[in-house]
Amino acid sequence: MSAHLARFRPGMRLLPLLTVLPLLAGCDMVVLDPAGDVARQQGNLIVISTVLMLLIIVPVMALTVFFAWRYRAANSEATYKPDWDHSTQLELVIWAAPLLIIICLGALTWVATHLLDPYRPLTRTAAGVPVAAEVKPLEVNVVALDWKWLFIYPEQGIATVNELAVPVDRPIQFRISASSVMNSFYIPALAGQIYAMPGMETRLHGVFNHEGDFTGFSANYSGAGFSNMRFAVKSLSADGFARWADGARGAGQSLDRAAYLKLERPSEKEPVQRFASVDPALFDAVVNLCVEPGKMCMHDMMSIDAKGGLGMAGVYNVRDLAYDKFAARGSASTTLKPRYVAAACAVPMAPSKAPVDRPADLAPLTGAGLSRPSRPLAPERTARNETPIPGRPLI
């Protein structure tokens, strides 16, 4: 019997590893194998950083086991030096190796932080494929609602709920905001996450390199319906995207401010909706927190504050503020009625276009305080056909 069990003992050692395989089957490697160039660069950054850290972690773990075994009390062959306390060679290895890795990680992080800045316009759609000067990014306005996502396409004049469709190999510029609480807009296959905050606008640039169906979601907890705050993402060909936009125009629904206020109400597991038309000024009203009729926009309020306030002329330009209780909250007095500004003379808010991005700088990055040479080469260097080094002054 013992000989029979010994025959199967090597296979039994692998049994714990086999039990882990079903757990790994549910892993989604979209972060390390995405469909967009920006997300792919971010995934490569994760891999490179991990490998650099493993260069010090693996040897330390291996040497820990080696020293514990080599210098165990039962090993009489190991050299016993109770008074040993210093080795210059060992100190150099201990301090130099981590220092070099930290320098490499710092340089890698600095460059990636600038090149993968979500506000930075794309300079390429794939490795070795620069963005042509005549290519116009697709603008998509994103609004995080409770608990759903609204997408507005100003160029196409349509809007959708919980469905995002974009053409492949075309840069995408997202303008992102929220209606009430902070969320996080995240499409792992496209690019990194960026926050959506009420009263503010954030931006994100990305591109898909091949067609497919993906998933986006909120990566920041925002209440009861957070778990189902997901949306479908479709990467389509140029013709497929045109057909999809034509289908949205045939939906028949119109997204004006009244429809938005109904859509803004909290709801969970909202099905996909498409709107054939949309108010051109809706997204700017959402950012300025003035979708409701008669509510002052933030840009008007900031304009008034910049000019020193309403002054004495605005004392009478107020209305009573109605609460859901008879008395003012936090006040024991019933004679003084709270008031709010009803209107002010301000320039009407016109529908704005996406902020014009400055052309992407294709020149190599330089460190802080290191300017690129602006004057021509010295005559003696020109004669030797030397070229300037970025960040190094010419002599």
TrEMBL record:
PROSITE patterns in alphabetical order: COX2_CUA, COX2_TM, PROKAR_LIPOPROTEIN
Q: Which UniProt keywords apply?
A: Cell membrane, Electron transport, Lipoprotein, Membrane, Oxidoreductase, Palmitate, Respiratory chain, Signal, Transmembrane, Transmembrane helix, Transport
Q: Where is the chain membrane-spanning?
A: 45-69, 90-112
Indicate where this protein resides in the cell: Cell membrane
The question of whether Transport is a record keyword is answered with yes
Q: How does it sit in the membrane?
A: Multi-pass membrane protein
* Pfam families noted in UniProt: COX2, COX_ARM
Q: Where is the Cytochrome oxidase subunit II copper A binding domain?
A: 135-247
Q: In what residue span(s) does the Cytochrome oxidase subunit II transmembrane region profile domain sit?
A: 23-120
Q: Where is this region: Disordered?
A: 351-395
Family recorded in the similarity comment: Belongs to the cytochrome c oxidase subunit 2 family.
In Swiss-Prot or TrEMBL terms, this protein is called Ubiquinol oxidase polypeptide II
Origin species, per record, is: Sphingomonas colocasiae
